[in-house]
Structures are given as structure tokens and as C-alpha cells.
Amino acid sequence: MSTPEQEIEYRQFRFSPPSGATEIFLVRHGESAPARGDDPFDLVDGQADPDLAPDGRDHAQRVAARLAGERIDAIYVTTLRRTVQTAAPLAEKLGLTPVVEPDLREIHLGDWENGLFRKYTTDGHPIVDRLWAEQRWDVIPGAESDEAFGARLRGALTRIAAAHPDQRVAVFTHGGVIGEVFAQASRAVERFAFLGADNGSISHLVLHGDTWIVRRFNDTAHLATPLG
């Protein structure tokens, strides 16, 4: 005959955000237009501001389909239009007006802005090798320092979390931003460990005070799912 103690079941722990925490879905913008030497991008505060490419617009629709049922309370975008364009389908579905957060813009690449980073990476410029060896953006002439970049991102996300306790927020941002944020959240030894988030990918953090909890990185399941 079993005792009351033997009848008690202890199930595995299921994560739930702490009271007052904010869930943040970091979405990398859809693929942007290719850089062409004879047709430079428009600039916003010295940073390249390309439109989405046709594939990027498809990414935006797929992100909207994926997040429409996630109880999103607010949407944030950066000053660069590729994030605004990626967020637009979800904003329309949810009836939300995106908030611009300038400090979540991409790392400023100094002398390598306006498509030159793409060109020099393809060409095998020696500074690219140094960038990966040292894992610092500011080996590029005139680029924003890694310390300034990291501080402005942390400040922006801290402000967003403070404004949205117990809520879910979609932040449409950039690959370098996601890489730095996850390096901070995971206390990664290698600063570039999380570079390479795919266009249209979704990464998920929980912010609770000074604690940043990683839930997932570079989720792209929706990019392979037929739109219905």
C-alpha cells in the first residue's frame, strides 16, 4: 500500500519569467539590398541605410506570422529603415505603433560604412583578419569603440525593460547588436561568439534588473515554414 509521500509527483522545472521581468524578442532585420560601388546607400547619421531586398520583405512577413500569437505588448525599431520595414507587417497585424530607439542602431563602422565593410570582407582586406583575431570593431579606422557600443546597447535595453515590466517586447535591430547583447548576457569570453544571427531570425532574452537570462538564439524555424 502506497503512502501519501509516495503518491506525490515532482515534475521537471518549467521556466517562467520572474515577477517584474521583461521578455525581449530581438529580431534581426530582413536581408537588405546589396551594396554597389556606383550606387551608394543613403546615410543616416553617417551610417548606411539600405532598403530591404525582396528576400528581406519575405523575411518580414514570416517574422510577423511567427510573432503575431506571442502576446507582444510593444515594438521597437532603430533609426535605420531596414528595421522599420521588417517590423511593419507585425505592427500592422497587432495594431501597434513602433517606438524608435536610436541607441539600438548598428555598430558604426567609421571609414568602412556605406557598403565598404561588405566589399573589404569579400576582398580579404588585412584589417578583417585583425578584426576577427582581436574581436574588436574599432580596429576599423574611425569605427565606434566596443566599449561605447556595448554601453549604449545595455542602456537602451535597460530602459526598455524598465518601461515594460511583466510584458513582452519585440525589438527589431541588427546583427552586430544581437551579437554584442548575447555576448554580454552570456558573459562570453569571445566577444564575437554570437555574431552571425541570420536575417529574420528571432533571439529571446529575459531581463530582470541586472540579470539577463538567455532563452534562445538565432531561431529561424519560421523562415522555412510556408506562409499560409
UniProtKB/TrEMBL annotation:
Sequence segments annotated as region (Disordered): 31-58
Highest taxon of source: Bacteria
Gene3D superfamilies hit by this protein: Phosphoglycerate mutase-like
SMART domains: PGAM
CDD domains named in the record: HP_PGM_like
Pfam families with a match to the protein in the record: His_Phos_1
InterPro entries reported for this sequence: His_Pase_superF_clade-1, His_PPase_superfam, PGM_Phosphatase
The protein's name: Phosphoglycerate mutase
